[in-house]
Amino acid sequence: MTSLVVFDYGFGNVRSMVRALENVAPDARVELTRDRSAALNADGLVVPGVGAFAACMDGLVSAGGADIIYERVRSDRPVLGVCVGEQIMFNSGSERGIHCDGLGLFGGHVGMLSAPVVPHMGWNTVEVAQDSVLFSGLEDERFYYVHSYAAHELNEPAEHEGVFSRAYEPRVTYGSYGADTFVAAVEKGPLMATQFHPEKSGEAGAGLLRNWIRSFS
């Protein structure tokens, strides 16, 4: 039986993510926990995130989640970050004048969207990366966003690139809002992440979660 853990560190729509995973994988065991052993040993780990970058990082580190993510990536065990759970995978983020280091697994910086109105809230399309696993069969779908900040590109080396078991070429899917372009999703070996909320994205989000689970089960 496939085992899935939603990491419960106090930030994120954890209940809706648990329900979404249960719906797309009814035969899987889905658990909401911060237990280290369960999070390390699950077939797939989901790291949600809602709120400010620095607060999410503080909460993740306090719950032992940073070490768990590093260990899973080092061991080629799948991790999926969602919303701020994607952002904290980058080298750093700045929000409301506060600069904070991220996990450094994706190269780049998270900053405010350049658009007349923020947050970017609602349904939007994506420009899917070639050979994407997450978006296979979903290239023309729309996904649900709620965010004011994002990474705009992977434009520098990841600070903790050495955590990966080998060099993975990231597949980057982009979104746009106003005149701004931002990272909508990244697929890098065992580590994948989305800026939008698949658990709020209807059938398109369900399809993406199925694709993620099928990639390792």
From TrEMBL:
<keyword id="KW-0028">Amino-acid biosynthesis</keyword>
<dbReference type="InterPro" id="IPR010139">
    <property type="entry name" value="Imidazole-glycPsynth_HisH"/>
</dbReference>
<comment type="function">
    <text>IGPS catalyzes the conversion of PRFAR and glutamine to IGP, AICAR and glutamate. The HisH subunit catalyzes the hydrolysis of glutamine to glutamate and ammonia as part of the synthesis of IGP and AICAR. The resulting ammonia molecule is channeled to the active site of HisF.</text>
</comment>
<feature type="domain" description="Glutamine amidotransferase">
    <location>
        <begin position="6"/>
        <end position="212"/>
    </location>
</feature>
<dbReference type="GO" id="GO:0000107">
    <property type="term" value="F:imidazoleglycerol-phosphate synthase activity"/>
</dbReference>
<feature type="active site" description="Nucleophile">
    <location>
        <position position="83"/>
    </location>
</feature>
<keyword id="KW-0378">Hydrolase</keyword>
<dbReference type="GO" id="GO:0000105">
    <property type="term" value="P:L-histidine biosynthetic process"/>
</dbReference>
<feature type="active site">
    <location>
        <position position="199"/>
    </location>
</feature>
<dbReference type="GO" id="GO:0005737">
    <property type="term" value="C:cytoplasm"/>
</dbReference>
<protein>
    <recommendedName>
        <fullName>Imidazole glycerol phosphate synthase subunit HisH</fullName>
        <ecNumber>4.3.2.10</ecNumber>
        <ecNumber>3.5.1.2</ecNumber>
    </recommendedName>
</protein>
<dbReference type="InterPro" id="IPR017926">
    <property type="entry name" value="GATASE"/>
</dbReference>
<keyword id="KW-0368">Histidine biosynthesis</keyword>
<keyword id="KW-0963">Cytoplasm</keyword>
<dbReference type="GO" id="GO:0004359">
    <property type="term" value="F:glutaminase activity"/>
</dbReference>
<dbReference type="InterPro" id="IPR029062">
    <property type="entry name" value="Class_I_gatase-like"/>
</dbReference>
<keyword id="KW-0315">Glutamine amidotransferase</keyword>
<dbReference type="GO" id="GO:0016829">
    <property type="term" value="F:lyase activity"/>
</dbReference>
<comment type="subunit">
    <text>Heterodimer of HisH and HisF.</text>
</comment>
<comment type="pathway">
    <text>Amino-acid biosynthesis; L-histidine biosynthesis; L-histidine from 5-phospho-alpha-D-ribose 1-diphosphate: step 5/9.</text>
</comment>
<dbReference type="Pfam" id="PF00117">
    <property type="entry name" value="GATase"/>
</dbReference>
<keyword id="KW-0456">Lyase</keyword>
<feature type="active site">
    <location>
        <position position="197"/>
    </location>
</feature>
